[in-house]
Amino acid sequence: MSAYNITMRPLLQAARLAEGISLDEFSLSLLRLFDFKVPPVFGLAVSGGVDSMALALLSKKFATVYGTKAVAFTVNHALRPNSTVEAQNVSDIVRNKIGLDHEILNLDWKYVEQHGIERSARTLRYEALAKSCVRYNVEHLLLAHTLDDQVETVLMRLMRGARKSGLAGMRRISWIPGGKTVFGAEQVKILRPLLLEKKVRTIATCFEGEIPWFEDMTNHDPSYTKRNAIRVFLSSSDKLPVALRPRNVILFCERLSERRRQDDVASLNLLKKEVAATRIKLSTSKLLLTWTLNPIVYENMPLSVLVSFLRRLVVTISPSTIPDVSTRQYEEILKRLLLPVKGNFTFMGVLWTHSSRKITIRETAVAGPVEKRKIRSWTTGKIIESLSESQFSEPIVLTKLIHTWKLSRESMGNDKYSTALVTVPAVGWSEWVLWDNRLWIRCAKAYASDDTSSKTIVIRPFTENDRIYIHKLGNDVRHSFDRTMKPAKGVDITTLPVIHDPELCRILSIPTLDFLLESEKQLKYEVKMRDHDFVTDKR
Questions:
Q1: Distance between CA 135 and CA 190 in Å, rounded?
Q2: Which helix (H) or strand (E) holds 358?
Q3: Where are the domains of the chain?
Q4: pTM
Q5: Quick one: which of 39, 255, 294, 457 has the most CB atoms within 10 Å?
């Protein structure tokens, strides 16, 4: 018996007797994800499979009833011989039968390494979707993942040894992958309105609406991907151990998802409090984050909240495009950070520099009964007895050690992200260019001129040759440069960007420090840090 007959035919038979997803059900799910504020336009990804075609049909009905606009995108990966023809067929159905605006996004594999093709396809797919969302002013992109997909995802992660956060499965709301590498896409959210629906109901929805779909037969080949193998494995759910049956996997997943949501909210609140108390400071000119530790607060925090908190700090400075590393690694780093010892280290492309200072605190308390609080330290596992201040009847002097960590970009070396090209047009601004996965930079000519040609400039790291060149320009320029560099004291300046003219073979400016050579003021620029906001679940 073929794998298709094992995985799909039973669903088709069951769908004949099942009820499709009603507009009321879909609307309630989507309105909750919209936070009951319907946007003027939203997008959806349509692969042509049954789930995405059901999503397209329901989205059209929703858009009609609620007076909004839905735009559908189909990604042509160009990996199969008939993929272009199939994408066009999907477009014809979505446009002519369902009635949605539709665009085919053709992926360009020209500069992509061929190993790890599944991961590369995902990266290119989301970058293409992110660019299209920006072009159409879409801030919400719908995906058609179902409950069946969620079960497969959780089991795949379980096989990889994932822990609590990973086993919580896909989020109903998340930021679009690749949104940080496409300017303007950092606010695009992924919504999964069908994540609580079984696949049999999306099939029934297409049957009821008489909507055809396209079946990719490779999705039923258990030798093709791990997900396919799990799909075949789950097709005989009655023969599975009770704990691995889809219903129990989902219940388990939902409990962890709620805990993850609580951790996300708690870590964001902690970050806000630390910033408000100035224990966390971010310098956009030096690209430096300073974190002064507050151990009393952290000792009472669950470890999972602190891991989420640490991720927020890391991603602010890190140039890494890897979205995450294991929770275990973060836990080890946390222990190293909160129980500081001398010595710096690197993690996720970030240099962690430790410093400490002693302060003297004079406290006076009113005499009273001694009160003890017992706290278990998660870092050492020991019980800590904390005495109340009312124990003391006279002024006391305490010496306290304050620990501070500075987070900056690690030495760049020959990092492939350290150079970017900017084409400056004759009139107006250039496109925004992402440098080192940390900064968006764009340039323009400062004055109108008769020169109608564009100009190419390079964004690269500062080098010692730049310092030598600047010092050769005379005392006034050198003094101006030295004054500019004072705020950057303690920072490896070779991790900061410079604007370089390849024709003149010299530096024009250091944009984050707003240093521009007097002779080069025919150029202007704008710099923005990559946006970071990682609250990804609805309350």
A1: 16
A2: strand 350-363
A3: 3-240, 265-409, 420-529
A4: 0.83
A5: 457
